[in-house]
Amino acid sequence: MNKPTFKAGKYQHYKGNEYLLIDVVRHSETDEYLVLYKPLYGEGELWVRPFNMFFESVNVAGKLQPRFKYLGPESELNA
Hints:
Elements: E1 9-13, E2 18-26, E3 33-39, E4 47-50, H1 51-54, E5 57-60, E6 63-66, E7 68-72
Antiparallel strand pairs: 1-2, 1-7, 2-3, 3-4, 5-6
């Protein structure tokens, strides 16, 4: 199973908050790929979400849009 391609960096959830995608990791029991990310607000705890769920589209008011929209690389966070 090859690691899926992705862009590390800053993402915006469709509800507005911003997150830093750190890496894609693998579940030790299921081999499922998970996205390792942290919110760019609050305490900044690390979270994981299934890769397919992170990158899926969601229906918002009848319109499909990405659950998390890529905003740019981490180096541009403070630009």
